[in-house]
Amino acid sequence: MTPSEPATHIALPQLIRLQADARALKLPAAKQVRSRQAGLQRSPRRGRGMAFAEVRQYQPGDDIRSIDWRVTARRQSPHTKLYEEERERPVLLLCDLGPSLFFASTGAYKQVRCAQLAGILAWLALWSGDQVGGIVFDGQSLTVQRPARRKKSVLQFLDTLASLQRIRGQKVAVAEHGSTNATLDTALSEARRVAHTGSRIFVISDFMNITDDTSRLLGALAKHNTVSALRIVDPLEQKLPDSGRFAIAGDDGPVWFDGSNPRFQRAYADKVAQHRAVLDDCFRTSGVRPATVMTGDDPAASLQALLGPRGHIG
Question: Helical H runs in 34-150?
Fold first, then answer.
């Protein structure tokens, strides 16, 4: 990260400038899209990108794989299904800006990485002709923007990302017993009401506060949509330094720990392994595709690895 890049908070103008990073991801070439308004996905005759239109009587030259055998049997003459190309595909971005994302030991705060990843994906989807929407939640509030194919909608979404981030000196409110009004599970439940069947959904979070319901909610989304989980991780959350005394900000002030304490190291490693196992099981049982983005990584480069060399997120 260069000194000019955001470390703890990213403002709206910086999110708007992410258009350059989105362009660098190399959108699919126009010749691969069969409609000027086609979405990020390619549109083969059978598969994603094609929507059922009608059934008509079979004509010579029709693809026999598209014959509707039920209608054929009922009417006693061959009938075939016709499809039309889907013009737009909704892309829904779930963005976690909760208290645990107000942290980083290297690179940028997790809330910054979340906003950057969402911003790049939003621009990429808009330029590919898809509808873009989002759900932004910070533990206390939840903002929903339904998918639309307008630049104004993307700008409104980016403005929400910028305004809901925490800033230095701001009190991070945590509800009693860890319960809040706008958790990951709340956002996933809301996404089921917002998302249209066949949507492309990205859940961007550190997944530090998953519950027994998270896997079920993710699975319900993944049943009729393509869902990816972008997990933002700081190196300190995976392994502590081997020696030295360090302080981490807590609800009641700084929390000190000694990296050279073997008992503390073992307890911390066990906790990390336990959480990792729970996450692996959550993603596996829900059928969600996970990817990890480190706080020290460049978000555009991380998305390049996820989306492939042509920036295709279909």
Answer: 69-75, 110-127
Query: Are residues 75 and 106 located together in one domain of the fold?
Result: no
Q: Is residue 117 part of a domain?
A: yes
Based on the fold, state whether residues 212 and 261 are members of the same structural domain.
yes
pLDDT digits 0-9 by tens, 171-221 = 554 444 344 578 999 999 999 999 988 999 999 999 999 999 999 999 999
Task: Give a yes or no: residue 313 inside a domain.
Answer: no
Contact 227, 203 (CB under 8 A): yes
What is the DSSP secondary structure assignment for residue 183, as one 8-state letter?
A: -
Total of domains in the chain? 2
Instruction: State both tokens at 308.
Output: 């492939």
Q: What is the CATH number of the domain that holds 16?
A: 3.40.50.410
Residues contacting residue 57 through CB under 8 Å, at least 6 positions apart: 77, 78, 79, 80
Question: For residue 42, is it within any domain?
Answer: no
Tell me the pLDDT tens digit for each residue of 224-266. 999 999 999 999 999 988 888 877 765 566 778 788 889 989 9
Q: Are 74 and 180 in contact (CB under 8 A)?
A: no
Q: Report the residue count for the chain.
A: 314
Same domain as 176, residue 61: no
pLDDT in tens, 78-120: 988 876 555 568 999 999 999 999 989 899 999 999 999 999 9
